[in-house]
């Protein structure tokens, strides 16, 4: 198990315990915690409804793949710390990760 924090638009953080032995993507884990992520593309990295900002602990994340880069390039609010949660598999290197759900900021 690892710990990940999700920061809301007011700066409050919720601690989440995340299993790393199930092969879940970060998007699947967030949906399991009932965050409102549509995932209309089924985790293929096309719809960007799982767009997140990595606030802390992003050093252990894998490099962006071409598909993720192409999708993020279409978003007007993408930043240097933007990622798609569907493209990140939960693993030990994500322990202590702090994220904000960008796709929900407009909701």
Automatic annotation (TrEMBL):
InterPro entries: 2Fe-2S_ferredoxin-like_sf, 2Fe-2S_ferredoxin-type, Adrenodoxin-like, Beta-grasp_dom_sf. Keywords: 2Fe-2S, Iron, Iron-sulfur, Metal-binding. The keyword Iron applies. Its cofactor is [2Fe-2S] cluster. The keyword Metal-binding applies. Residues 1-105 form the 2Fe-2S ferredoxin-type domain. Belongs to the adrenodoxin/putidaredoxin family. It comes from Dyadobacter psychrophilus. This is Ferredoxin, 2Fe-2S. One of its GO terms (biological process) is P450-containing electron transport chain. PROSITE patterns: 2FE2S_FER_2. CDD domains: fer2. One of its GO terms (molecular function) is 2 iron, 2 sulfur cluster binding.
